[in-house]
UniProtKB/TrEMBL annotation, chains A, B, C, D:
<feature type="transmembrane region" description="Helical">
    <location>
        <begin position="191"/>
        <end position="212"/>
    </location>
</feature>
<feature type="transmembrane region" description="Helical">
    <location>
        <begin position="309"/>
        <end position="331"/>
    </location>
</feature>
<dbReference type="GO" id="GO:0005886">
    <property type="term" value="C:plasma membrane"/>
</dbReference>
<keyword id="KW-0472">Membrane</keyword>
<keyword id="KW-0812">Transmembrane</keyword>
<feature type="transmembrane region" description="Helical">
    <location>
        <begin position="264"/>
        <end position="289"/>
    </location>
</feature>
<protein>
    <recommendedName>
        <fullName>Gustatory receptor</fullName>
    </recommendedName>
</protein>
<keyword id="KW-1003">Cell membrane</keyword>
<keyword id="KW-0807">Transducer</keyword>
<dbReference type="InterPro" id="IPR009318">
    <property type="entry name" value="Gustatory_rcpt"/>
</dbReference>
<dbReference type="GO" id="GO:0007165">
    <property type="term" value="P:signal transduction"/>
</dbReference>
<comment type="similarity">
    <text>Belongs to the insect chemoreceptor superfamily. Gustatory receptor (GR) family. Gr5a subfamily.</text>
</comment>
<comment type="function">
    <text>Plays a role in the sugar gustatory response.</text>
</comment>
<feature type="transmembrane region" description="Helical">
    <location>
        <begin position="62"/>
        <end position="84"/>
    </location>
</feature>
<dbReference type="Pfam" id="PF06151">
    <property type="entry name" value="Trehalose_recp"/>
</dbReference>
<dbReference type="GO" id="GO:0008527">
    <property type="term" value="F:taste receptor activity"/>
</dbReference>
<keyword id="KW-0675">Receptor</keyword>
């Protein structure tokens, strides 16, 4: 293989900060946070090597996850009971769907946890084999920014919601304990209708709500961060291809490039097998909650804090959905770039390895999928946006008819 | 061809239980049941060899089928007459469409019967030629489970419906014979409006209704079971490919694999020519009845048994549709797997046979189709689900306008 | 090339009845009929050889066509004037759109006439070069049946409409001349509002209406017949391929097959350049009129002859649309068949010519298009059917809201 | 390379008028006009060579652009304030969206300006390398016609709008200064509600409105002209290919053709990177305003000048959208033509270069995209038209419900 001086420098730099750029280390803080909320129960996430990662059914972490899963199922059960007895509309089903999605999310992360150790080991192997491509300095910063942005936004939304509920409770109660009770009754009326109010029950409901809210936000964050890290691997390969554009490279170079591209395709495939449940849940729930918020936007809002909460939560939801969608679609965008680069190859540098690589990049389709039902590309995002706009138009027209 | 020890063992096992795993034997109980209800009128379904299968127009079975076909046409005729004279809405057309679908189903199975003997012979030839791939132990169990599940569900739904109708009749009649009469008048009013009530006519109508209900359920069951069996053939081929992944195989191995894959493609094509009418009917009717049930769900249900019946029939309809859809889409899913496996081939094992197989799996499209109008893949299922959700949204919005 | 005995017999038969099977002769009666109604103004349609075909701007036939075109434009002008002054809804625009489509149809056929001579010469050349494939006996019969069916249906619809209008007129007039006047006023009120009633004007309007109705029906018939004839060419090629399936053929055979397939592709391309305007008009107008009839179906019909007319015209419209759609889609269906046949080729018969033909049939897309906006395939027909069903659902829901 | 006499003549002609046909000179008048309205702030647009083109952040032109950008943002701010306080429907949001699109357009052209010099240099290099293809005489005429047509249409629309507003103002004011004041208050009420009326403010608002209107029209014009110029390059290449159709060409010819086609693909890619924001804005805003005008068409218009304005502005909007859509889709149409031409190649002229070119044209996808969310092809235009028709149907149905 003909290594240009520039690439050698990259290579050295890669060895120097290889510890820093590894996916295993980058994702570690996120995984630790997830485990506090009973998501992704694997051992060894803080170990220096990904080989220490283990998933065991017989462990405290898995037990914690399963306990949370059953608590959420418990909440879903009372929501369904409430709807069946009292009857419910589009809006009343929100609570059931919210806890239903949370339960499914915990299930999907449990499923992912079983595949996580092997995935991270494969990822590290790819990173090691392609260390000569160097690393992108901006990746860690980018991941930190997105993490901070999404978590801060979610925290603000959560506190605005609590303030909203508390101020409502304060207006309807005399004593301090009454405020808490009113607050709990308002936000979990489906539960207390059957069990009656008790402080233990209130604590339980609060914890369940917090976990569900966290899992809903974390799901998007996790997909976005993983996708960005994978996109970065494709970007490094493309940067390398771009550097040699127009030059005549040896067959060995093309063979190696093809093998590296193939190993990235396999990594995407492995990742997809792990997270495609999460992707389906994430896109489905975001689509549902955007439509719900559009529906809610037709109701007049009385207080300024209700208005602030509504605009914040809706704006944040749109921002989060756009972030996660574009991040995931980025894998597909970046994986298609070699296609164009290969067309520019001068005629005398054609050989069997080149044509194999060309056929590979022309025919392959690299993208995360939602359980194979859809693959996340920019075209698919336009379809999703079109669906939302159509729903909004129908809503606006109906509200004209009604008034 | 280089045969690995592991494959030889599989081969021996295959010879040992070849009788058990053959498609002809697996499908026999289903075909016998179908023939009791005048579907798939071929001779020799219980014979040990598929070569005994015969379709003759001049036979008692075909006569039975044609008699049923005309009885159902008779029912359709009275439904149309009723609608044209009394007028009908979306809901009133249900009866006509129900018997119309049943008539078309009997026609489609008659068309399939003419192609059945050749199809099963081709299937057996494929099984025999690929016996070295062994057989999957779980296939028969899987088919039995699905058969039991769908038939039990359908039976429960039928009895709940009968109970519903009988309890309605019991409230409106004094004598026992009056109950039966009321019951028949309620469920077949379009018939007795013209012919007047008679016991012979009532028996005729009951039998026709039972046959129509059976054919509607059996259609889905039959497609699901056939698809699962075909998917299994692709799975065995993929398991074999997976086993040799990364190893350097001879050109002979690739030639054989390509020929086997091609013969599976042809088998899919032959199956498709036989069942594509049934697939179109199945997907069309399921889509229609789901939309109808969603429409019905807007009406309040008075009694607890009406409610139980409604939730059961709707839930079962959704479950059945999901089962049949995912089973059929499984053929396409499984047939696409070699695509990814071929990309990972090391450079030195490339030869003409490899590139032919690679071109084959990259460009072919293997799936059952609904009379070529659509091919059943996961993407198509998402489109179908999206259509149902859109209809539900329009319904909910309109019900808001009305109230 | 290795010619099998069977093919030789076909070849001899082809020479014997080559005069009968030629596209030029088959389409002649249709073209003559078209010219009576000022469509397709070319000279030499009844000549034995297609080389006698000529299109001249300075000819009586073109003058006739242009006169009709201006008469129809005249009608459109008064329709627009009427709508702008009196105002018009969805239904009132029907007249304008009807004459607008007729005008566009005459324009599209004039455009086709300029390309017709070259197209028929190319078609004859293809027929001559592929005469060894023989001819299909059933083609002429099929074309005659479809012609008879569509023309008879259109004639019946026209007379039912006239009867309807006349019986309406008879009820509102005393004298015989009054009946005619009432009849004309009813069916062409937009014209007489401005010009006042006169017998000359009434004759003019009747002729214009008859020409517009004929062109609307002829458009579909013409596309269907041309497509069936082209599909037949592909079918003959496929029959030949099928006959040699599994046998080892020489490179010369594959080269010839590829060249023949390519010449059929070019013929489709030339045909498409000529008729794609007509295809767009045909599909667009059929879609529009189906939706309009669905809309009309919500209004109650008072008399039995109104009811008969409505059901006949709607049923015939659906039948005609299905016939023309499936005929045009047949070209695509038939052109895709070699794709599957090529996969089954035994390994030892591979050579450069085979792989060129294989690449050709795998990547080409052969279909008539509607001015490149859509290509007519079965999948596209499903989309069109889905659009109609969606419109029907919206209509039914709105009618529920209104009542 | 084998040069035919015909091509040599083309080559000479190209050298003779190379100055005239260059893209840089053709687009210059348009760019100058754009710079008067602060769009595309680059230096050297009137220089004879594209190498004189420069983009500098520190320049008067960029400062002008940024000043306009902030003025438009200022307008958007007051629109949002007005909507949030007074509340707004679908129609009231029109003003905000209009200025929002204008702001985004100025941003998109600023982004394009940074890439403009390199793009024009690349374009000139392509023109120079392919000068042997000659030039199409009709290109400049075509561009001038479209420019004149779109600008004249926009001017007429603008003056009709002003007349409308002035005549409304004249009816509500006594003095001349009062007319101006009324006129300004009517067209910019969201601004004067907060700032109070002043002449300085009125001038500012008028200039901002004129700039926004110009940028909205110019955006479409610019995309259309650039696309037509690029399409012309593909057309010249196709004309050359067509001229040698059926002849046996050297490998060198095919190599050169492939390289030229590839360089056009790269030019499209570079252009796309520059204008894809503008394309997204253009298609989005046209779709929005067409739907808005359809919505407005339901309201009755009182005066003849209101009616004239409405029909003119709507007709012009449709014409402009069709022009820009078909122009952009033309790139894709023209780039697909070699696909068909390559199939007709005689067998003995096949070689490696031919098969490379064939693979290139069969698998590549050349089109401008809207920020990768959609690529502009005829199929996509049909989808867009279908969306508009669906919206119109929903509107008409709802208006039936309301009345």
């Amino acid at each position: 293989m003909t290594i240009s001086p520039q690439e050698e420098i990259h290579g050295h730099a890669a060895v120097a900060d290889s510890g820093l750029s590894s996916f295993h280390r980058t994702i570690a803080p996120l995984t630790v946070m997830a485990q506090c909320f009973a998501l992704l129960p694997v051992h060894g996430v803080t170990a220096p090597s990904p080989k220490a990662l283990r998933f065991r059914w017989m462990s405290a972490r898995v037990a914690y996850t399963i306990a949370v899963l059953f608590s959420l199922l418990f909440m879903v059960f009372f929501c369904i009971l409430y709807i069946l007895q009292i009857g419910g509309t589009f809006q009343d089903a929100q609570c059931m769907i919210f806890y239903g999605i949370a339960t499914a999310t915990y299930g999907a992360f449990l499923h992912l946890a079983g595949r996580w150790p092997r995935l991270v080991v494969q990822w590290s192997a790819v990173e090691h084999a392609q260390s000569c491509y160097g690393s992108s300095k901006s990746l860690r910063l980018k991941i930190r920014c997105i993490t901070a942005l999404l978590l801060a936004g979610a925290a603000i939304e959560h506190f605005l919601n609590e303030y909203n509920n508390l101020s409502f409770a304060a207006r309807h109660a005399n004593t301090t304990s009454g405020v808490v009770q009113q607050y709990m009754l308002r936000s979990h009326h489906h539960l207390f209708t059957y069990l009656g109010y008790s402080h233990a029950c209130a604590v339980f409901a609060s914890v369940a709500a917090a976990l569900a809210t966290f899992s809903w936000n974390f799901m998007d964050l996790f997909i976005a961060v993983t996708s960005i890290a994978l996109t970065d691997r494709f970007r490094l390969l493309n940067r390398n291809l771009q550097a040699f554009r127009g030059k005549r490279m040896s067959a060995e170079f093309w063979k190696q490039t093809r093998e590296r591209y193939t190993s990235l395709m396999y990594l995407t495939d492995t990742l997809n097998l792990g997270v495609s449940h999460v992707v389906l849940l994430s896109f489905g729930s975001n689509l549902y909650f955007i439509c719900l918020q559009l529906f809610n936007s037709l109701n007049p809002l009385k207080n300024w804090y209700e208005r602030v909460y509504f605009y914040w939560s809706f704006g944040f939801l749109l921002l989060r959905t756009a972030t996660v969608s574009l991040s995931v679609a980025g894998i597909n965008d970046e994986s298609r770039l070699p296609r164009v680069l290969m067309y520019a190859l001068p005629s005398d540098s054609y050989n069997d390895e080149v044509s194999r690589f060309q056929q590979l990049v022309t025919t392959c389709h690299v993208a995360l999928t939602g359980l194979s039902f859809f693959s996340v590309t920019r075209t698919m995002l336009l379809t999703m946006a079109g669906t939302i706009v159509t729903y909004e138009i129908v809503l606006v027209q109906f509200s004209h008819v009604n008034t």
